[in-house]
Design goal:
Blueprint: E1 8-16, E2 19-26, E3 62-66, E4 69-71, E5 75-78, E6 93-96, E7 105-114, E8 117-122, E9 135-139, H1 146-151, H2 168-171
Antiparallel strand pairs: 1-2, 3-9, 4-5, 5-8, 6-7, 6-9, 7-8
InterPro entries: Phage_phiJL001_Gp84, Phage_phiJL001_Gp84_C
Organism: Sulfitobacter brevis
Pfam family, one: Phage_BR0599
Length: about 190
């Protein structure tokens, strides 16, 4: 004799104290899958991904150098860092190319010049060991705006945002005869 108690799939598996725990996902789990696109003003692509199609390895958009000094793997300083405008790498990535931390990366929070030194600050510290002269790569940052895509990267054809969407306060507007928001044509 059989008794059907559950129908669905097994999700994530976790090992706890020598046993395992399985997540059961019901038949409606497929409805939680996002479909379509998100319509928002900023670009939804990640710089260099298949929808952005920008080659971040292009000369001028990535820069290989070695670690001069750092504070807890989160703030890096150079005295001889030339050729890039301040803020060029903000919102970009820093990747470790060799050593014990090879393959690790973090997102760049700030790119500034302080007291004659170029300072790159990360959102999260690199969790591996970083010695002086460890090779790293800095990749230019993108703030997801239409102007940045057009002027900094010359990649407007692949912009994935909708900059002409009305702001949220537009939804709350109502026609008024006492001001320019009359609902009629503007002369």
């Amino acid at each position: 004799m059989r008794w059907l108690q559950f129908r669905g799939t097994i999700g994530e598996l976790h090992r706890v104290d020598g046993a395992f725990r399985a997540e059961l996902r019901g038949l409606t789990e497929a409805l939680n899958r996002p479909l379509g696109r998100v319509y928002q003003k900023p670009c939804t692509a990640v710089l260099g991904d298949k929808t952005c199609r920008f080659a971040v390895e292009t000369d001028g958009y990535s820069h290989d150098l070695t670690v001069a000094s750092h504070t807890r793997g989160q703030e890096f300083r150079w005295t001889d860092f030339l050729g890039f405008d301040e803020g060029w790498f903000a919102r970009g990535r820093m990747e470790v190319l060799a050593g014990p931390a090879k393959g690790l990366w973090s997102v760049i929070k700030n790119d500034q010049t302080r007291s004659g030194e170029r300072v790159i600050e990360l959102w999260e510290p690199i969790r591996g060991s970083l010695e002086a002269d460890t090779p790293i790569r800095l990749i230019a940052g993108c703030d997801k705006r239409l102007e940045t895509c057009r002027l900094k990267f010359n990649n407007l054809v692949n912009f994935q945002g909708f900059p002409d969407l009305p702001a949220e306060d537009w939804v709350m507007s109502v026609p008024r005869s006492s001001s320019a928001n009359s609902g009629g044509s503007r002369r």
